[in-house]
Design a protein that fits this description.
The complex is a heterodimer.
Chain A lengths: L3 H7 L1 H20 L4 H5 L10 H20 L5 H31 L4 E2 L22 E2 L3 H27 L6 H27 L14 H24 L2
Antiparallel strand pairs in A: 1-2
Helix pairs in contact in A: 2-6, 2-7, 2-8, 4-5, 4-6, 4-7, 5-6, 6-7, 7-8
Chain B lengths: L2 H28 L6 H6 L17 H21 L5 H29 L10 H31 L7 H18 L1 H8 L30 H8 L3 H22 L6 H33 L6 H5 L1
Helix pairs in contact in B: 1-5, 1-6, 1-8, 1-9, 3-4, 3-5, 3-6, 4-5, 5-6, 6-9, 7-9, 9-10
Amino acid sequence: MIDFAAIIAENILYLLLIIVGGLLVAIGVHFVPVGGAPAAMAQSTGVGTGTVQLAAGAGLTGLVAAGAVMQVTDNLLLVIASGMVGAMIMISSTMLLGNMIYIYGVGVPPASAKIKYDPITRDRQDLYISQGTEGHGVPTSCFISGVIGGGLGGLGGAMVYFALLSVTNGTSALNVIGLASIFSVAIFFINAVIASYNIGGTTEGFHDPKFKRLPKAVVSSIIVTFISGILSLITIGGL
Amino acid sequence: MEPLIGMGVLALMGAAAAIAGMSEDLESDVGSQSNPNSQVQLAPQMMYPHRIFNKAISGEPPSNALMCAIGGTTAAILMDSMGMSVLFSVAIGALVAALAHGSYSTMSFFGRPASQKRFKQPIYLDVLRSHIVAIMAFAFVTTFSIVIISYLMITALGHPFPLALLAFIWGIAVGAIGSSTGDVHYGAERQFQNTEFGAGLNAAQSGNIVRKGEAGLRNGIDNLWFCSRFGGPATGIAFAMTVFLSGWITLVFDPSISLTIGWLSVIAGLIIVLILIIFNRKLEVSARNTYGPYKSDKEEVAA
């Protein structure tokens, strides 16, 4: 019989790390500027895909980088920093090339519809929006918001992976790596979806009015990550 | 491992990633997947029946992740349990994935136009016959390249994740990149070439996609030809940058040597991100200066 209470008590610190990691993912997704289907038709500001999809793409790239570094060091800070950097590289390459397509392929300059002046560059935005659209492309403030969001996602994903891999267990390292990575991906998706529902489709990043909805996502993320964290702890710790 | 061999492996991975990115985007153009397909789906309802292949199995990341995970799993089983050679296993894995993708595409193609019978949208069997081969071929190339990248990461660079999971994660990443970059060229430009270049796409134009081709009626293969000139290669570059740069920093500054070098890899990564931010800013400024504003500033005129 598996002693659930003992497993959780023994790994309570890792459970906390998992919750913080999940929370970081949920917060990070709020920063990622996604315009959904309208952005794919250059009708709204942001990257032309879904919130979960882009955040997952970036965060999981970070997870791959963190996994590679975790193989050679057990320093928590270095592992999560590597995850953060991997995710940041993915999301900035994507936004840069996406912007190139908006500019050279579609012929529209990056412009935000939610703000009159870009909060970072102080550039005027409303004059550069084409008729009948809600902005297009990824202006600098959205780009930087996206980099922060991707970074937080990678940080969170790597933190969850680190915690799960450190749980005390009685099985081979190969099994634990497989399970820990799958659970990290799962916890990442759960939190990305929570954030996506909270945003409700499209957002431009930290300057978007929808960003103020963040506290709601924080509460739901803590609850859901707590439950999924306990499940994954028992699964790995009980082996 | 010798740094030079590591660099060679990484270069090979970058090349495979460029091919994977390009084929992923072109697959979604010829078959019309992801967000731009909303217009292909909408067109008949606005009384614009068309001959464009209509499939959106799911968002691109889950669809590609499924393909790559099928390919990775099949290849891993063939290699580990049956002792087959790597290249043969990966090719068979990619073939199985392409077959699975082809069956999903066929079902999707029959299902979607069938639901639009009341809008008089026909189901063209010749479109299915001509497009499904291209769709499956691109699916094969994408899966093959992604599984090769994952295999190289595990065997040559010593990555701890299992092959199927690594293929799954790269499948998600390539789908996210294709959906964010290449698809814009298809959705915002190719589908709406009836509006002036650079005029922006008024929301009132929704559903009014171009239905006449360079010769005859336009189909997915015409879209493939156009998008292969910019959208596809751009996706390839974005995915290759992701794979290459995220691997390059830990290869040059190897964290296994010492913790300090590990931190140097993080700093190198942050510098790369900073360069990309500056590059994007330069691009934004040049676009604003070249194209100019769409309307004059009423406040200044009034003053």
